[in-house]
UniProtKB/TrEMBL annotation:
<dbReference type="Pfam" id="PF13412">
    <property type="entry name" value="HTH_24"/>
</dbReference>
<dbReference type="InterPro" id="IPR043129">
    <property type="entry name" value="ATPase_NBD"/>
</dbReference>
<dbReference type="Pfam" id="PF00480">
    <property type="entry name" value="ROK"/>
</dbReference>
<comment type="similarity">
    <text>Belongs to the ROK (NagC/XylR) family.</text>
</comment>
<protein>
    <submittedName>
        <fullName>ROK family transcriptional regulator</fullName>
    </submittedName>
</protein>
<dbReference type="InterPro" id="IPR000600">
    <property type="entry name" value="ROK"/>
</dbReference>
<dbReference type="InterPro" id="IPR036390">
    <property type="entry name" value="WH_DNA-bd_sf"/>
</dbReference>
<dbReference type="InterPro" id="IPR036388">
    <property type="entry name" value="WH-like_DNA-bd_sf"/>
</dbReference>
Length: 431
């Protein structure tokens, strides 16, 4: 006899009590979103709601412009039934990914599709930068003719640490001029839209769960964020875990090479000084793989962002040469992938996960080398290799993942029952 566990289903269950109509409406909408196209009968079956309750909720969602009838579906041996699906134009959200190398502002629809994008150049001072971000958001809405009442708000993905409750950026590495900045509050004051700020890796997890539904990740996985810094996120039972303060995912001081360089934390061979782009460029420089000095600072120079253009160029060159067949460059990246594999092994064993998804701004540069190597390390080193196999995947959402996630966190907060923390400032109007 086989047992089925409730958490294996991505669909939420509602209640037929009359006092929780808004919750049931969210449950029905979430079920329709995840299914893509579905009949009312199937919604009732998946949610545990009565047919009459589902009919009432669907009518309200259609009246609100969030759901539309389109086509038919066949359920069992009965006649075809009217299909309902999400109305992508029913709600929109803006997403900002503020990263050291590039800032991206996007506009997404309810299906998580990017419909417009801007790449603003930010000044060094935070006040000026926030004003530019506000103008960029307004530009996208104006360009697409989106009325304000259809916009859920603005989501921001930014490197930690941050104080999510106060919407304050504390002191992120590689982002100079952003110490103790009330980013969410100030941007909301200018735009008049609700603003939600999230750590970049957590936003990436939101993007993967909201817009990456077609990917076979299941409901439980580790997400590895590969940017100028390296972090991880976790998704359990389809819900993004944020940690107590919203700063979950710091893994820089996991030791992956006991003979590696000293870290400013006092250990040797941490992820922070052996695995990120700065560490790999410095290792390549020491091995004579560049014709001269790169100008890239040592990994121990914590929070130094003065050399970021040089670092970006040097790391891209290193990856390109590895892909073009330079064995020494490829060997260096394979070695780096092995260290990441050891870190991933620790994380999957701790969380009892069998699926790892990689993404982030620099992931596409190393994907072809890292995917196989990380999988090899997992299958050789994991304690749980005797229990299950592992899936190591690349996100299907590309380099815009964190921006998509920041925007989808707004939609998730607005439309999904009990999923996300509240936004900065005033509550968003009810549906």
């Amino acid at each position: 006899m086989s047992l089925s566990y409730p958490h294996e289903s991505p669909f939420l269950h509602g209640t037929n009590l009359p006092a929780v109509g808004d919750y049931n409406r969210s449950v029905v909408l979430d079920t329709i979103r995840k299914a893509g196209q579905i009949s009312r009968v199937e919604v009732a079956h998946l949610t545990g709601l009565t047919a009459q309750t589902v009919t009432n909720m669907v009518r309200k969602l259609i009246d609100g412009g969030l759901v539309q009838e389109q086509g038919t579906v066949t359920v069992g041996r009965g006649k075809p039934r009217t299909a309902i699906r999400l109305n992508p134009e029913g709600r929109f959200a803006l997403g900002i990914h503020l990263e050291p190398a590039r800032t991206t502002v996007i506009l997404i629809n309810l299906a998580g599709e990017i419909i417009d994008r801007d790449l603003p150049i930010l000044p060094d001072d935070s006040a000026g930068a926030i004003a530019v971000l506000a103008r960029s958001a307004a530009l996208l809405l104006e360009r697409q003719g989106i009325p304000r009442e259809k916009v859920g708000g603005i989501g921001i993905a930014i490197p930690g640490p941050l104080d999510a409750g106060r919407g304050t950026v504390l002191d992120p590495p590689n982002l100079s001029g952003w110490r103790n900045v009330r980013l969410a509050h100030d941007l909301e004051s200018i735009t008049g839209l609700p603003v939600f700020m999230e750590k970049d890796v957590t936003a990436a997890c939101h993007g993967q769960t909201w817009a990456g539904n077609g990917q076979e990740t299941g409901q439980d996985y580790i997400f590895m964020y590969m940017g100028l810094g390296i972090a991880f996120g976790t998704v359990r039972q389809g819900q993004v875990y944020r940690g107590r303060t919203g700063n979950e995912g710091e893994m820089g001081h996991i030791v992956v090479d006991t003979s590696g360089p000293a870290c400013w934390c006092g250990q040797k061979g941490c992820v922070a000084v052996t695995c990120d782009p700065r560490s790999l460029v410095k290792q390549a420089e020491k091995e004579g793989l560049f014709p001269g000095p790169t100008g890239v600072n040592d990994p121990q120079a914590f929070n130094d962002s003065a050399d970021l253009p040089l670092l970006d160029g040097a790391f891209r060159s290193l990856c390109r040469r590895a892909h073009d067949g330079e064995d020494a460059c490829r060997d260096l990246l394979v070695e780096g992938a092995g260290r990441i594999g050891r870190a991933v092994t620790i994380l999957t064993d701790l969380w009892d996960m069998d699926t790892v998804v990689f993404g982030g701004p620099y992931w596409h540069l190393m994907e072809d080398i890292y995917l196989d190597r990380v999988g090899q390390v997992l299958r050789r080193r994991s304690v749980l290799r005797q229990v299950h196999d592992f899936k190591v995947l690349s996100t299907t959402l590309g380099g815009d993942l964190a921006a998509i996630g920041a925007a989808s966190a707004i939609l998730d907060n607005d439309l999904t029952p009990g999923s996300s923390p509240g936004m900065s400032g005033k509550d968003h109007p009810a549906l």
